[in-house]
Amino acid sequence: MKGNPQLIQALNELLADELSAINQYMVHSEMCANWGYVKLHEQYERRAIDEMKHAEKLIARILFLEGTPIVSSLKAIHIGADVVKQLDSDHTAESGAIAAYNAAIKLAGEVNDFATREMLEHILNDEDQHIDKIEELQDQISHMTLPIFLTTQVG
Predict the structure, then answer these.
(1) Quick one: 70 exposed, middle or buried, by C-beta within 10 A (0-12, 13-18, 19+)?
(2) Where in this chain does the entry annotate a coiled-coil region (predicted)?
C-alpha cells in the first residue's frame, strides 16, 4: 500500500528519535551498572528494550507503506554524567518524543491513515509511561535527597 510521503517522512523522524533513545538509555544503563545502581540499570535497560520495540514497529509500518526506513540518522544523544543529569536528559528526550508522536498522530488522521494513527497512539501511551517513571524518580530524589535515593538503587 503506497503511503503518504509526508507521513512516511514523519515516521522516519520518529524512527530516528527511537534509535537515538535506545543508544542514550543503553549508555545510561551501563553507567548505572558500573556504579553499582542495579535497579536503575535494569530500569534503563527495560526502557531501551521498549524503544527497540517501537523502532521495530515503525520500520515495519514504513515498509508496509512502501517507504524506506532510514536507520542511519540519529538525533542528538545527551549522556548524563551523573544520575540527576541522566534523568534530566531522558526527560527532555521523552518530552520531545511525546510532542513528535502527537504531531504524527494528527498528520496520520489528516491523511486518513487510521491504522498508522492507532499504532502511533499505542507507542505514545508507552512514551507517557516512560516520562511518568522518569518524573517519579526525579520526585523521589527531591523528597529523599540524592544520596539516600541512590542507596535504594543498589542491587
Answers:
(1) middle
(2) none
Is 50 among the annotated ligand-binding positions? yes
Instruction: Output the pLDDT for position 134.
Output: 98
Question: Domain of 44?
Answer: 5-70+82-150
Residue 94 is labelled as binding a ligand = yes
Distance CA 113, CA 151 (A): 48
136 is in an annotated binding site: no
119 is in an annotated binding site: no
State yes or no: 26 annotated in a binding site: no
> Tell me, what CATH number does 132's domain have?
1.20.1260.10
pLDDT tier at 126, thresholds 50, 70, 90 = very high
**Reported pTM:** 0.94
Give the residue, 1 or 11, on which the prediction is more confident.
11
